[in-house]
Amino acid sequence: MSMTLKEIARLVEGRVEGKSDIRITRIAQLDEAKDGDMTFFGNPKYSEDLAKSSASAVIIGEGVPAGRAKASLLRVKNVYWALARAMKSLMGTGELPLSGIHKTSIIGEKVELGKNVAVGAYVVIGDGASIGDDTRIHPNS
C-alpha cells in the first residue's frame, strides 16, 4: 500500500514542510531509507544520519531542528505515536482472514488441514504435517 505524505499528515495530525504529494510506500530506519520511504527522527544524536538519509520524508517533532535533512518533513507533536499510526496504515494490521491459504505459502505433500485453518504469507508446512481445526499460522513462520 502507498499513501501521499499529505494523507499521512492528515492521519497523524501533522504538518508537512516540503513536498506533500510524494508517495510513501514503506517505513525504514534513517540509515536504510530510500526514495519512497519515510523514516523518523527522535534523537539528536542521529543528526548525521538524518543529513545522509535518502528517505523521501521524515517524521519529526515540532520544534526539533532538522539540520541538513534533504527529505520533506512531517512535523508532529509525538513522533512515536505518529510513527505507529503511519505504520499501521501503510503496512496493515497483519491480521489473517478467518480461513484460507495465502498464495505465497508452500504446503507439502500429504498435509492434513483441519477446518477453518488460516495460513499467512510465506509460510512453509512440511510433508505429512497435520494442522488442527481453527489454527492460525501467521506470515513468515
CATH topology of the largest domain: Udp-n-acetylmuramoylalanyl-d-glutamate--2,6- Diaminopimelate Ligase, Chain: A, domain 1
Distance between the termini: 22 Å
What Rg do the Cα atoms give?
20 Å
CATH architecture label of the largest domain:
3-Layer(aba) Sandwich
Total tally of structural domains: 2
Mean pLDDT: 89
The main β sheet shows up as: 5 strands, mixed
User: For the largest beta sheet, what order do the strands appear in spatially?
Assistant: 2-7-6-5-4
Helical proportion, percent range: 10-25%
Provide tags for this entry:
5-stranded mixed beta sheet, alpha/beta, 19% helix, Udp-n-acetylmuramoylalanyl-d-glutamate--2,6- Diaminopimelate Ligase, Chain: A, domain 1, single chain, elongated
Topology diagram in text:
Layout: E1 3-4, H1 5-12, E2 15-17, E3 23-24, E4 26-27, E5 37-41, H2 47-52, E6 57-61, E7 72-76, H3 79-91, E8 100-101, E9 106-107, E10 112-113, E11 118-119, E12 124-125, E13 130-131, E14 136-137
Parallel strand pairs: 4-5, 5-6, 6-7, 8-11, 9-12, 10-13, 11-14
Antiparallel strand pairs: 1-3, 2-7
Summarize the structure.
Helices cover 19% and strands 27% of the residues. The chain has three helices and 14 strands. The strands form five sheets. It has a five-stranded mixed β-sheet with strand order 2-7-6-5-4, with helices on one face. A three-stranded parallel β-sheet has the order 8-11-14, with no helix packed on it.
